[in-house]
Write a structure and sequence with these properties.
Blueprint (H helix, E strand, L loop, with lengths): L3 H13 L10 H18 L14 H16 L3 E5 L5 H8 L6 E3 L8 H10 L4 E6 L11 H11 L2 E5 L17
Parallel strand pairs: 1-2, 1-3, 3-4
Helix pairs in contact: 3-4, 5-6
The structure holds pyridoxal-5'-phosphate.
Length: 178
């Protein structure tokens, strides 16, 4: 559910309708965007000297960008996801001409790390694992630490789809879940 502040911000954005094409067309909004992306990136990478981020139209584009960046870095990556992964990941692989994702089971709506370990052992590199922080239907969060360790061990890239769960970073209570 949106916060009152978010609804008010949407009203202001709709009324002002700033074009974000260039700084000349929307200098104030461009400055706000730069501040926002820096602040968001610092939430996720607090120890990185100059963290930065990119605003996308939503989770679908964010997932596509993740697969695109992995493809640019490593060539035709094999995506590994789980049955709880948002369907935009398979769609992105198809759009980018990448192999169809290999899907591991997700009992209780979270990725099974044992099944992931087996899959990473048998597949050829380059590999990109897509984990989920907050599934669309139940808000379930994959065991991110374990998955990150497995990716490091097996030399796989890791993308976390936090389209839904990412804002938990703003909650002092729930932040450690991420
Ligand atoms: C986990 C997750 N990833 C991706 C998406 C796609 O996001 P969007 O509809 O903003 O493209 C959603 C949407 O619900 C989602 O819950």
């Amino acid at each position: 559910p949106p916060l009152a502040l978010a609804a008010a911000a949407d009203l202001a954005a709709s009324a002002l309708n700033p074009s974000m094409d260039s700084w000349d067309q929307a200098p104030a909004a461009s400055a706000l965007e730069a501040d926002l992306t820096t602040a968001l990136a610092a939430e996720i990478y607090p120890h990185t000297p100059s963290p930065d981020a990119v605003i996308t139209t939503g989770g679908t584009e964010a997932n596509q960008l993740a697969l695109l960046l992995a493809r640019e870095r490593h060539g035709p990556v094999q995506t590994v996801c789980a049955t709880n992964t948002h369907h935009s990941v398979a769609r992105a692989a198809w759009l980018l001409g990448l192999p169809e994702p290999v899907t591991v089971p997700a009992p209780d709506d979270t990725m099974d790390p044992a099944a992931l370990a087996q899959t990473l052992t048998r597949l050829d590199r380059p590999l990109l694992v897509v984990a989920t922080a907050g599934t669309t239907d139940t808000g379930a969060i994959d065991p991110l630490d374990t998955i990150a360790d497995l990716c490091a061990t097996h030399g796989a890239e890791l993308h976390i789809d936090a389209a839904y769960g990412g804002p938990l970073l703003f909650s002092p209570t729930h932040r450690p879940l991420l």
